[in-house]
Amino acid sequence: MAHIDTGGSGGRNKSVELNLVPFIDLMSVLITFLLISAVWTQVSMIQLGASFASPRSDETTPLKPPALEDLVLKLEIREKGYVLFVGKDVKTIPKVGADYDKEALIADLTKIKQMYPDKGGIKMAIEDAIVYDHVVAAMDIGLKAGFSPELLTGGPN
Question: Does the structural domain 73-152 have CATH classification 3.40.50.2000?
Answer without folding.
Answer: no
